Amino acid sequence: MTEIPRKAVQRTAKLASLPLGVAGRVVGGWGKRLTGASSEEVNAEVTAKTAEQVFAVLGQLKGGAMKFGQALSVFEAAVPDELAAPYREALTKLQHAAPPMPARTTHRVLAEQLGASWPKRFIEFDDEPAASASIGQVHHAIWHDGREVAVKVQYPGADEALKADLKQLLRFSRLLQAIMPGTEVRPLLEELRDRYLEELDYRDEADNQRTFAKAFAGDEHVLVPKVVASSPKVMVTDWITGTPLSSIIRSGTTEERDLAGALLSEFHFSAPSRSGLLHADPHPGNFMLGDDGRLRVIDFGAVARLPDGLPKTLGRMTRLALDGRSSDLVDLLRSENFIRENTVLHPEDVLGYLAPFVEPLHTESFHFTRRWLQHQAERVGDLRSPDSQTGRSLNLPPQYLLIHRVTLGATGILCQLDAHVPARKIVARWQPGFEDE
Fold first, then answer.
1. Does the keyword ATP-binding apply (predicted)?
2. Are 95 and 186 in the same domain?
3. Are 6 and 135 in contact (CB under 8 A)?
4. What pTM was computed for the model?
């Protein structure tokens, strides 16, 4: 493969192969059962092959298809193990790896973006990518002044592929729901579509990264690499090293898990106040833990612009739910359009729905686990439960959708890490409105 498949028909066919492939394997499984194979053996084989196909198809397509898989890789923590486990490893691969493009294609993009004499800008340039992602891949190089740098090169056709994928994935949202049960796929895709189209010009990402790097310059907990150079399809930044959070999730020590979780939480809540921006692409491939104990943060293509920091309303809502003030909570929700006009909701029902989400703030340190997140997903996802009915009656105003999705994604990572986090202290310091009540 020399570049991303661009034609909508071609990409649609590959995406369609996911649900069709699942169906075919299930039919084949029935045949094996008729010949005497046990249902456990057949189910294990079907799910394993399906997981392999998820990675192969989404990874090869890159673009919006791969970004969709990366988003799902965070939310798998909310899904019961018997459903999520077969897909976990395949989806996790999408957090940091995908089939790379050939060197000649990389060189062509570099020449188009940096000029025909681009090799003179580098003392060394490694043609083998150090990492491959959804719309670009990263190469290690030595800049002309001797600095180690990371060179992010966008795949040819990424813009067309991203737009085509997001359009087609919306059409397939009901079928794709089966890949990650318990996740509301269509709203997720609609929000991802709006954010990810912003990532296609690396100059915008470079501006975002410069803002973050300035805000966290010299910080003892967070390191953001500085931008060296940028163009629409190529970005050069300082090279950084560390242990990816995906590796810590898989095999990290308790100390590493707790440290990574605390640093990630503090970055999530503090960044809007410090930089006016919220890092809006929370998956483990974008974070590393360095030997110096600092969190390394990369990939600033998707951000939420919050010049006044996180909304004060969210802090007030959180505090009212934490304190059990149901009537005041409903009044606030109604005034901020979280409850639509003419919708009748009982304050205690609303508090019952929201209170478990603020459970991490009741103690000095909270243990974020997959089981806790699974319980929350089961509670609000069971259509027969009162909490589910209350949740469907609430409204999420558009200006809060991205913040909500990012917070859920960050929480998913904390649960994957199985981390103990001083959430109350972090929220109290950085969430506007929380200490006002």
1. yes
2. yes
3. no
4. 0.77
